[in-house]
Amino acid sequence: MTGAAMSLTAAASGFVVFLLSVSVVQAQDGWGVTYTATDICAIKGSTVNISCTYTYPSNVRVQETFWFTKGTNRGPVDLKTQSEYSGRVQHQWEDKTCTLTIRDLRETDSAQYKFRFITNQQSGRYTGSPGVTLTVTSSSEDPGLQVQVIKPSPVLYPSWAELTCHSCFLPGRPSYIWYKNGLKIKETPTLDQYFDSPDSYSCAVKGHEGFPSPSVCVKGQSCNRVTYTDRSICAVKGSSVDISCTYNSHDKDIQSKFWFRRQHNWRTRSQPVDLSEDSQFAGRVQVLDPETGRSTLRITDLRETDSAQYHFTFKTPGFEWRSSLPGTTLTVTALQVQVTRIRRVHQSSTEAELKCHSSCSPAGHPSLVWFNNGQEVGQGPNPYRGLIYDGDNIYCAFKGHEKYHSASVYPPKLLSVSVSPSAEIVEGSSVTLTCSSDANPAAKYTWYKKNGNPSLQPASKQFNFSSIQSSDSGEYYCTAENDLGGRTSGSIFINVTYPPKLLSVSVSPSAEIVEGSSLTLTCSSDANPAANFTWYKENQTLIHGPEGTYQFTSISSEDRGTYYCRSENQLGQSNSSSVSIDVQYGPKLLSVSVSPSAEIVEGSPVTLTCSSDANPAANYTWYKENQTLLHGPEGTYQFSSIRSEDSGTYYCRSENQYGQINSEPLLVNVQYGPKLLSVSVSPSAEIVEGSSVTLTCSSDANPAANYTWYKENEESPKASGQIFTITDIRPEHRGKYYCEAQNTRGRHNTTSHLTVVADPLKLPVALTVPAVFLAFMLLPAWLWIRRRRSLDQQCEAEGGPDNSAQVDQLHYASVQFTRNQEDHIYANVSPAQHQADKQEGVIYSTVLSRAGSDPRTRRPAAVEDPSSLYSSVNKRC
Fold it and tell me: What is this structure's pTM?
C-alpha cells in the first residue's frame, strides 16, 4: 500500500519538515490499524498531525480511543493525561479515522506513538504496532539521526556487528562521519567490524556535524557515553538555568568528572577548564548529582557572555571522555521592547503597539508582564497596546523573572540646547549647535531659526556652521521626536560680530611666469576696523603688515609653490583661498649616467640616461662626437647589444623654449676579447741556418691583450710578449709556432709555420765531394753563361732592346732539411725549377699562419690556411 504525506501544520515559531513513508496495515480477523506513515520528522516549535485508520468487526462497538507512547503496570497511558503534553495535544477520531495533533513540538517529544481502541467486548482491545516514529529536530538542518545495530551472527560472532546511520528524511546518499567514544574516527557509510564492550558509537551527516545521533552501545548497555538532556537551552539574562546530562562509564571507578565550556580544541595539549574553578563563574556555578549517572550544571545570575556550548567529561584509571560532539548550547537573551505601530493622538500623547522581543524563547514560554513607571499595567501575550504620554516609562519581563526586565522605552525628555564656542562668535569661524535629550528609542532632531528657514537640518542632533556669517545671527531652537512622542526646546540666540570678509587674492602678471621676471601678489578684504595681512607659503610666514602685497623683483624656480594670505583684526580673521605659482625656466642641473656603471662588455645591453630640472619639461638629444643619435622627450639612449665600434665620447643636450644646456662628456669604453689576430715574420727574406728571426703577434683587444708563444708538441711556452725572437737559427727551430692573445674578456690564437734553409757553406762532408765534382763538371757551362750575360749587359748599355727577361739565369739548388729527425747526414739536393714566366730564380720558405689553432694541440692542421704568409728566402752562393 502506498503511503501518503502526513498533514503537518507549521506553528508560528518554526517550519516543519516531513517524510513520505510507506503506510503500515495490521489486521487480524477484521481487527487492524493502518498508519499513514511510519516515520515523521518535524522541527522544534512546529505542529504535527499523526493519522491512522482502524477496522473492527461489525458486531463490535468502540467505546474508547487514545494515543500513547509508554505504559505502566496498568497498561498504556493516554497522552492527554501526561503533564509534559498538557495543553499541546488534541485527539480527533471520526468514521474509523484517527488523528493526533501535537503543537509546540519539543525535542523530548521524539518517540514512537501508537493508537489504541477499546470496544464493548471483554477481549476487544487493539493496539496498532509498531506505531509511528516521530523525530523532533532543533532546526531544518537537523537530520534526526539514529544508529542502527545489526548483528549478522550473534552466536558465532558475538562481537561482530554492522552499524548504519538512519535518518527519517534525508534524500539521496549522504556521506556519514562516525565517532567512537565521542571522537571522530572515519568517514564511511557503515561500520562493519568487531566491537568492544566499553566503546560507544555515534554518527553525523557530513556538513551537519552539529546534529549527531545519540551514542549507542554495540555490546551491552554499559559502554562509555554521555547524553545531554537538551541540545539547546534559552534563558533570560539574570535568571538561572540547569544543564543536565546522563553518563555511563564501563569502568565504574570514576576518578573525576566536571563541566566545561567549549573553548579548547581536544587536538591541542590544552585541557578544558572546570567551570567550578573558572573565575568568570565564581559564586554562580553549582554542580548537582541527584543520582548516579546523572549530572546537572546550575548557573545563576546569567549574563549574555555565558552564551556558549557546555560539555561534561569524566575520567577513570584507563579512560577519559573527550567529546568532539556538540554538548548543550546555552543562549542567554536580554528582552527588548520594539515599537511596531504608532498613531499620534495629541501633542502630548501617542497610541502605540509594543512587542516584547528576545533572541530566543525560554523553555516553558512564560507569560509576559508589562510595566509603566514601575507599575504593572498588563499581562498576557504580545503585543501591548495603549496610549503613551510624556513622562511614561514602559518595559516588559517574563512572569516570574520580573527582576530581569527589558530596558524602558519612553518619549524624549530632559531636552536642552547649547552652542559651541560659548564665547564671542566671530564671522568665518566654526560654530556648532547641539540639541540633546533622554529618549528610547533614540530621538531624531530638527533645528529651526525663528523668522527664518522653517527647517535647517532635520534628523540631526547637531547643526554645524563651518564658516558662520553675520547673516546667521538670530534665534534658534530644536525639536526631539521618537516613535512615542516629541518635545520642543527653548531658544538660544547667536550674535555674529564683523571680522574681515570678502577676502580675495590676485597675481600680476597673470600670464606665464618666467624665471628672472618680477611678480606681485595682492591680498584684499572688507573689514572694519582695517585688517592686517600676512602672506604664507606652505604655512611659512613671508610678510606681515597693513599692506596686502608681496613682491618678487626677480623670481626664481625655488619660489614655486602654494601661497595664501590671512586678513585679521581684533574681531576675527579669515584665510584666503590658495594660489599656485608656477615658475618656468630653462634646463639646469643636467646630469648623465651610464648603466651598468661597471665595466661595459661587448654584446651587453647599455643605457645612457640624461636628466635635468626644467619647466616646462625638456627635450633631450644624444650625440656621439657631434653625431646626432636620438632626439625626444625621453632622456635615455639604449644599446641592446653594444659593439666595440660604439666606444667613444657621448654627451646630451637638454632644451626647452627657455634655453638649452649640454652635459659633460661621457666616455663609453667597450671591452672585448682579442680579435683580428695576425703574425708577421722579420726578416721576410729567406731564413738561413745560423741567422736570427723575429715573430711579431698583433690583435685588436680591449683591454690590451697579453701574448704567449708555443711550439708544436712542446708543453711549456717558448716566450711571452708580443715579439718572439730566435737567434742562431738551427734545424730544430723549424716547425709550427702558436701565438695566443688573451685578456679578461677572452682569448684567441693563430699558427705560424717556420721553415729553415741550411747554409751551403756548412754542408756535411758527405755532400761536399759530390758537390765539388758536380761543380767542376758544370764549370765550362757556367763560364759560357757568364760570358753570355756579360755580352747581354753590353748590348743593353749600348742602347739595345731590353732583353733582361731573356737572360739566361743561374739556378741554385734548394737545400732543405727533411722532416725526418733521424736523417741528419743527408740533404735533398734538387735543381731549381725554371719558372715559366722567366722571373728571377727564387726559393720560397713558407711561413704558415693559422688563426684559431690551439698552441697546445700537437696535431698538425689537416688543411693549410688560405691566409698563409710566405717569406721569400734568397739562396746564398
Answer: 0.42
